[in-house]
């Protein structure tokens, strides 16, 4: 690893300036040159610029594939003994919390059928072949195996739903027969509803052991064939979206930030802003007060959810390490989400301001990412987070710290979809807002002096005020700005130098083709901004023709050029992180293999490289998009072939 400056976000601004991704398969000489600020620290002078033929490829054992998640693709929600998950429960109870263009189709606001992968897994494998996948990341539905969430082994026999086991055996065996290595996620947000009802799910410390038991069953049953395990997918999204920012994500708890008021909810259960009061009696930690059932959402629920889910991850890893890893020889880690942070800079930014913005970019990354990645790497929350949260920050016990430390040292999974700018907030008179003092420190004040976002500001109803950081894809938060993956990879590599044995795996990265809801076609403010800072290649305006049109799937839906350019930008920046910066990145799973149930956006937002007509086609026919083939070609050209 080259020595980069303390704030690797520097690389973002500088490298992004000169690392022009014009033709991803063959970068020209000036495309890979770094400017002098980085040359000093990264020794870029010494880097021989490869000719077209010599482009340094990713190694032959690079993990290459696509990702999906059980609730988003499987369907068969109540078939063969599967229990209800929080996603079944809440999408059924609050269908208006999920977007749908066509509510006449009762399945358009839930995952009841989704891609029907439960019955059509062979069809999915055909799609994997087109992109030349050697890995496939899927998730296991906890409530398909243990309908009430409580895994128990009595007299040597597990209380499992055998049909569920048969399904995952089929998935794993089919993958292996096709020379595709399974990468299994144990938890991708579909908590068994019974545990939410019993004790409020992740808000209660008992969730930790229930998760570890369920994980033990999976290791024991599938671990002879599954050698890559991801414990938890995106703790931030699960907890912050599910327990604070709702009603976007199950279990639709929301406090704090502007709950959306829903209109005409069909069920009449549209409580305060569309958020749910339904919850079991919960104890955040052993010995804490018992919070009553069916209470209004409380402050800090997301913080406690995060705390418990991180410990649950560590306990599952402990079971694997103690009982299975030596024999099964697999690897285990966690998948973290979060935007890489780019110091804000425009033509008027002074060098002093830029320095300060770099500091704030790192701070913002510690809050957004380090909060979740530090515990499984170094055993505790970042010092900055603890100090600024004050008494609102949960504390790990010494035993928990011990379990956590190194619990993702086999590999670290990172999902990346966007980037944020960051800077210190200014008062109206131009002076800086100050950080909270120790006395003021609390959840509410913790980020009072910190700004980060992918828009330059927010208008009414959270509308984005341009410029945006790159062009806006089909979700408001999904921005096409390839250098973000390089910045983030460097941030992790620097922070956890020497601590990650088998490298970083990009466990998700993907693009929603611009659609009618959030398109920012002809966003001239963004175009002008990127031109003004010398990065015109990211001034990516697009016209109406690129916007998805369901009535013409042969158009930009299947011929998904915008998405192809996304993958080209991100993959080239990943390759540069490996080839130029020496980052140990070992895999890339594109999100997603197929269009699927996109949580709060239902089937209205498509991330897939395979088209499915969810509204009219009962067969759920898979139609490959152009991007699927593009990825297959990229793999052949940019990864060493054994
Ligand atoms: C991730 C999530 C996926 C998928 C993707 C696109 O946060 O893990 O399940 O929905 O975002 O929104």
Automatic annotation (TrEMBL):
- Any single biological process term in GO: carbohydrate metabolic process
* Source organism, top-level taxon: Eukaryota
- Similarity section: Belongs to the glycosyl hydrolase 1 family.
Under the heading InterPro entries, the entry gives: GH, GH_1_N_CS, Glyco_hydro_1
**What is the protein name stated in its UniProt record?**
Beta-glucosidase
One GO molecular-function entry: beta-glucosidase activity
The residue range of the signal peptide is 1-16
- Give the residue ranges for region: Disordered: 430-450
Q: Which SUPFAM superfamilies match?
A: (Trans)glycosidases
Q: Which Pfam family, any one of them, does this sequence belong to? A: Glyco_hydro_1
Could you list this entry's UniProt keywords, alphabetically sorted: Glycosidase, Hydrolase, Signal
